[in-house]
Amino acid sequence: MLTGGSFVLTFKRKRQVNKYILFSLLTFFVIFLFVYLQALTEIPNQLLIIDGKEYVFDFKMPFTVNLYQDKKVDLKLNGNDINNGITNLNMMKQFTLLTKTNKDSRVNINLKMFGFIPLKTMMINVVPNKTVIPCGNSIGVKIHTNGALVVGTTSVLSSDGKYYEPFKSSNINIGDYIIKINDLQIKDISQVTSIIEKSLGQTIKLEIKRNGRIIYTTVKPCKSQDGIYRIGIWLRDSTAGIGTLTFYDKDNGIYGALGHGITDIDSGMLMTINNGEIVPSKVISVKKGYRGKPGELKGMLMEHYGKSNIIQNTEYGIYGKIDKNSTIIPHNKALPIALRNEIKEGPAQIITNINGSDLNIYNIEIQKVFLQNIDSSKNLIIKITDERLLNYTGGIVQGMSGSPIIQNGKLIGAVTHVLINDPTRGYGVFIESMIQKADSMINKQLEEMPAAS
After folding, report:
1. Among 438, 181, 433, which residue's Cα sits nearest to residue 312?
2. How many CA atoms lie within 13 A of 31 on its CB side?
3. Chain-wide mean pLDDT for the chain?
4. What is the dihedral of CA 129, 371, 409, 431, to 10 degrees?
5. Contact call for residues 178 and 148 (beta carbons, < 8 A)
6. Integer angstrom CA distances of residue 369 from 54, 189, 290, 430
7. DSSP letters spanning 114-155
8. Contact of 388 with 401, CB cutoff 8 Å
9. Domains delineated in the chain
10. Quick one: pLDDT band at residue 387, thresholds 50, 70, 90?
11. How far is Cα 418 from Cα 294, in angstroms, rounded to an integer?
12. What contacts 4, CB < 8 A, 6 or more positions away?
C-alpha cells in the first residue's frame, strides 16, 4: 500500500525517467540529423570515372548504406555487381568502384541509409581513357549576355524635383536579366534605353530571368529633370578580359578555359552567355603581385584563323568549340587526365604564358587536396615554388586562371584563384570537374539535335 509521500516520490521518479528518455531521444535525433546533413554535403552529386580504372572513395560516414544503380552498366563495388544492390556497406571504410564498358555511360547510384531512408542520388559518368592537350596560352575572352544584366539601381530625380525609384515596386533586383520588353527580345542595352525613352511614361511589360526562373512584371518609367524617361537601373550586356586556355580535346573539338566562371564585377553573379568567342592574346606587361595586392597580366588581342565560340559559362570555367586548324591551339603533347583520387600532395608543374606568346613550365607544390569538395572550383591548394615565376610575377596573378596543372605526366587540374594575403599560394580545380562540364555540354547539344526522319 502506497502512502501519499511514497506516491509522490514514485511519480517524481517516473517524471525524471521520462525526462531522461526524452533527452536521450532528442540527443540521438540531433546527432542523427547532423550526420545525415554531413553525408549530404560529403557525398558528391556526380563523379567522373575512367573506364577500366579503379576509383577509391572514403566518405567516412558512421552508418551503413544500400546502393542501387538505375540501369545496367558493368559497374562493380569492391568486386561485387551493384546492379542488384549492395547492402550493409560500411561507409567508415574505403571502397573501390571499377567499370568496364568501352563506351561513354551514365548511371545513377541511389544511396539509402540503413536500406530504407533515402540519402542521395549520385550520378556516375563513365568515360573511356581520355587524353587531352594541356594548353596554358593566354587568351582574350569576349562575351555578350543573354539579355541586359541589372548591375545597379539608383533614384531618379524627377521633373517635379522629387526622387523616385520606379524599379522598386516592379520587383527588379540586381543580378536580374531583362530578356524581353513588351514581348520584344532584348539584344543590347541601347534597345532597352530606346524602349524606355519612347514609352513617354506609359507602363511597359518586362520579362526577367532570375536564377533560371522567368518572372513577369511591369514598370512605369519616370521623367527625369533632363526630360529623359528612366526606371532607375544600371545595365551591362557584354564584358571582355584575358585568361588562360586549359585544355583542348582533339577528339571532339571541345576546349575548357579559366577554371572558374565569368562573374559580373558589380553584382558578382555568374553571367549568362548569348554569344561569345575566345581569341589569342599576347602578354605585353605584368603587374607583379604583393601581399594584399594581387598582380595582373595585361594582354593584347591577336588575329587568328578558325572559329572559337563560347557555349557555356559555368562555375568551373568557360567551354566551347575550336576549329581543329585554329591558331589558338598550342602544339603541346596530349596527356592523360588524372581523377582526384590519383592526385597527391607534393611536387607538380603548371604551364602558363607570362611573356609574349611563350609557354613555359614552372614548378609548384600541391599543399592540400580536398577530395570531398568536388562541387567547387577550390579543390586544391597550390604554392608556386619556381624562383623564375616568383621573381617575375610574385606568384599567381590575374590572367593566369586556367593554367593547367601537371603531376606525374597527367593533367590533374587548373589554377583558379590567388590568395590575396599570399600571392605565392592559390587554389586549383580538379580537371575531372572541367571534363564533366565539357561532356555535359556535348550531351546537351546531342539532346537538342532534331531526330533523324
Report:
1. 438
2. 9
3. 81
4. 60
5. yes
6. 19, 43, 25, 9
7. TTTEEEEEEEEEEE---EEEE---EEEEEEEEEEEEEEEE--
8. no
9. 42-128 (2.60.40.3450), 132-141+238-441 (2.40.10.120), 155-231 (2.30.42.10)
10. very high
11. 8
12. none
| Residue 294 identity (one-letter amino acid) | P
Q: How far apart are CA 179 and CA 338, in angstroms?
A: 40
CA 362-365-315 angle, to 5 degrees, is: 85
Instruction: Provide the grid cell at 312.
Output: 557555356
Lowest-pLDDT range, 2-6, 80-84, 211-215, 437-441?
2-6
Q: How far apart are CA 143 and CA 317, in angstroms?
A: 13
User: Strand runs (DSSP E) across 202-310, as ranges?
Assistant: 204-210, 213-219, 222-223, 229-230, 233-249, 254-257, 273-287, 296-301
Residue 401: partners with Cβ closer than 8 Å, 6 or more residues away:
243, 244, 258, 259, 260, 414, 415, 416, 417
Reading the block at residue 383, the C-alpha cell is: 604554392
Q: Which three cell numbers stand for residue 148?
A: 541586359
Start-to-end CA span in the chain (Å): 92
- Lowest-pLDDT range of 162-166, 398-402, 404-408: 162-166
Tens digits of residue pLDDT in 138-151? 998 888 888 888 88
Reported confidence tier of residue 453, pLDDT bands at 50, 70, 90: very low
Angle 445-448-453 from CA coordinates, rounded to 5°:
120
Q: Which residues carry out catalysis?
A: 260, 386, 401
For residue 35, pLDDT over 80 is answered with no
pLDDT score recorded for residue 443: 62
Q: In this model, does residue 100 exceed pLDDT 70?
A: no
Strand partners, 126: 49, 105
